[in-house]
């Protein structure tokens, strides 16, 4: 299992120490560094800015939101960054949720899987550069059909020859159908709230996607699962968990509406339904401190690596036997050398 670092998206401004962590990841020989976006900072600009000072580490978006850009605009950003980084870019995509898609981008959210399928197909067509981009889908039509717009639209081919026509595309997915879709149409899966306890279930979902794709053994072997995992080293497990609890509370209570929260659904499937009900109730009532306090230690330990160094390294071994191919550390960058040394052992 490889190791990477996730800077996340910005809160009130650039996260302190992010550039130092990116440089440390490159110097340590880590696999990759990743950025994200919600409704503030974007994913591509920080990756280009910080990544410009690196030479080895791969640079990925986890994730770039589909509704933030047209598929051709995303393909342009991807092929540009891939050239500038010497072929080190990984395009991670995600649909986000209805609150962001409809509230921030002003676009309809329904049928996200079908929209994702079309989006990826257009991006791959741009990167292949085998001819002018033409697509007649339900969500994306290129060029715009007669009767819509000026009628002067023309099918165009990228002026830039992509450095890699097979630039890897990864999908963020939490629901069962979306996880299977990642295996069917993408080169990797970006899970959130992954737990080793669910490894068997995820393997089955990915196998379903590979079967629909007709993927051979080599494609299955090369498929990547890059899991974002909060890491906090602290001799006091509860204090370590306290650093992660607000993150869990935000996603359970605030990153989705009541009854339509895909992040909470993941934790419900892990068996934390009653705890999530309490967390969400506090959060939606504006009691964020109580929401964070309601996150059980067991939940945090299921989806994160927190506590004394020896205990964290012991639990890390359970992750090594899962479908995860790269563990993305989120949070404590000082843990990177410790984890890197441990993972280097046979």
Descriptive key words:
eight-stranded parallel barrel; 12 strands; alpha/beta; two-stranded antiparallel ribbon; 45% helix; 346 residues
Q: Supply the number of helical segments.
A: 16
Strand order of the largest sheet: 1-2-3-5-8-9-10-12
| Rg calc | 20 Å
Strand count: 12
Structure description:
By secondary structure, this protein is an alpha/beta fold. The protein is 45% helix and 15% strand. The chain is built from 16 helices and 12 strands. The chain has helices at residues 18-28, 44-51, 71-84, 98-103, 112-128, 176-185, 199-213, 217-222, 237-242, 245-254, 262-269, 273-284, 288-293, 297-303, 309-320, 336-343; strands at 2-8, 32-35, 58-61, 64-65, 89-94, 135-136, 141-142, 169-172, 188-190, 224-233, 305-307, 326-331. The protein has an 8-stranded parallel β-barrel with strand order 1-2-3-5-8-9-10-12, surrounded by 6 helices. It has a two-stranded antiparallel sheet with strand order 6-7. Helix 1 links the parallel strand 1 and strand 2. The mean pLDDT is 96.
């Amino acid at each position: 299992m490889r190791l990477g670092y996730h800077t996340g998206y910005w809160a009130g401004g650039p996260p302190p120490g992010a550039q130092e962590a990116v440089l440390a990841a490159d110097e340590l020989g880590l696999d990759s560094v990743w950025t994200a976006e919600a409704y503030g900072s974007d994913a591509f600009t920080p990756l280009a800015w910080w990544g410009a000072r690196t030479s080895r580490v791969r640079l990925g978006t986890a994730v770039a939101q589909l509704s933030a850009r047209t598929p051709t605009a995303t393909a342009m950003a991807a092929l540009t960054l891939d050239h500038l980084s010497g072929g080190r870019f990984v395009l991670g995509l995600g649909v986000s949720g209805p609150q962001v898609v409809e509230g921030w981008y002003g676009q309809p959210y329904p049928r996200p899987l079908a929209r994702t399928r079309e989006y990826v197909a257009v991006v791959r067509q741009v990167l292949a550069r085998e001819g002018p981009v033409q697509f007649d889908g339900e969500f994306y039509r290129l060029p715009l059909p007669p009767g819509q717009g000026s009628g002067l639209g023309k099918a165009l081919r990228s002026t830039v020859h992509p450095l890699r026509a097979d630039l890897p595309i990864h999908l963020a997915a939490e629901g069962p159908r979306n996880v299977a879709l990642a295996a069917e149409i993408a080169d990797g899966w970006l899970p959130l709230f992954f737990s080793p306890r669910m490894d068997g279930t995820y393997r089955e979902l990915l196998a379903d996607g590979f079967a629909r794709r007709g993927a051979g053994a080599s494609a299955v072997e090369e498929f990547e699962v890059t899991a974002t995992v909060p890491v906090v080293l602290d001799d006091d497990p509860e204090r370590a968990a306290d650093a992660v609890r607000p993150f869990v509370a935000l996603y359970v209570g605030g990153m989705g509406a009541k009854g339509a929260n895909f992040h909470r659904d993941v934790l419900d499937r892990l068996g934390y339904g009653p705890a999530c009900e309490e967390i969400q109730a506090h959060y939606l009532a504006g009691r964020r401190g109580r929401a964070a306090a309601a996150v059980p230690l067991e939940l945090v330990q299921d989806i994160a690596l927190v506590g004394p160094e020896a205990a964290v390294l012991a639990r890390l071994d359970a992750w090594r036997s899962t479908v995860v191919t790269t563990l993305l550390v989120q949070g404590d960058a000082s843990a990177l050398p410790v984890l890197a040394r441990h993972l280097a052992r046979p």
